[in-house]
Design goal:
Distance between the termini: 52 Å
CATH topology of one domain: Alpha-Beta Plaits
Strand content: 35-45%
Largest sheet: 4 strands, antiparallel
Strand order of the largest sheet: 3-4-2-5
Order of helices and strands: HEEHEEHEHEHE
Radius of gyration: 31 Å
Number of strands: 7
Length: 233
């Protein structure tokens, strides 16, 4: 009859053999590839940020001044709202203390913001030009959800076709006639220069009151990257 030590050793050997048999084989004839698809498109989303600041000795007074300026701007902007074409939302509204050289509070200052955005550039700029209680702080452009989805689909189709062509080319280069996909990762990104407004970002209230804010959108490049691994066969 085998000793307990021999039985234990045989059990361990059998277990190790079983685990080794279950371990996946190291993949061979696998190539890592990537391909990109790009589409240049006109930016169709405009965002204008307007703000004002206030300061004083009394925090309540400063807050009230900011609120009055924001309320006045909203009264002008709200009648022009049209979903997707011109949307209005409040931005940063903050109040913080000022300190003297002895680190003691000697007053208060704050800022309030209003953001106008959408696809109707004329409506947005005209509305911004009518607001007298805030001044222009920033102009930026982008892509609407609809435009982005459309362009990303186009760029993705291009990237996929390039990935497939590269996979076949690489496979043939190594002496194989075909391939199968092992894994694929798709990622999106925007590239390109920043558009610039035709006017300076900061303007006086008088100029804002007299005319719409002139702007000119630029173009951006939507880039889709398809990367992954293929099994050459």
């Amino acid at each position: 009859m085998p000793s307990p030590k021999k039985i234990a050793a045989c059990a361990l050997l059998a277990c190790a053999t079983c685990l080794f048999a279950q371990m996946p084989a190291t993949p061979v004839n696998v190539a890592q590839l990537s391909a990109t698809g790009t589409v240049e498109v006109q930016q169709d989303l405009l965002m204008i940020t307007m703000n004002t600041t206030a300061s004083g000795q009394d925090a309540t007074v400063v807050q009230s001044q900011l609120k009055q300026a924001l309320d006045a701007a909203l009264a002008v902007a709200r009648p022009a709202v049209q979903s997707g074409q011109l949307d209005v939302r409040t931005g940063n509204f903050s109040l913080y203390p000022r300190y003297d050289q002895n680190a003691k509070v000697n007053g208060w200052q704050g800022i309030t913001e209003l953001v106008l955005d959408g696809r109707d550039f004329s409506r947005i700029t005209a509305t911004a030009g009518k607001i007298k209680s805030l001044t222009l702080a920033n102009i930026s452009f982008g892509l609407s959800r609809e435009q982005r989805a459309k362009v990303e689909d186009e760029a993705q189709a291009i990237a996929i076709e390039r990935f497939k062509a590269k996979a076949l080319e690489v496979s043939k280069g190594f002496g194989f006639s075909a391939y199968t996909l092992r894994e694929v990762i798709i990622s999106a990104n925007d590239q390109g220069g920043q558009p610039r407004p035709r006017s300076m970002a900061m303007q006086a209230r008088g100029e804002m009151a007299e005319s719409a804010v002139p702007v000119e959108a630029g173009k951006t490049t939507v880039l889709i990257t398809v990367s992954g691994a293929v099994q050459m066969r």
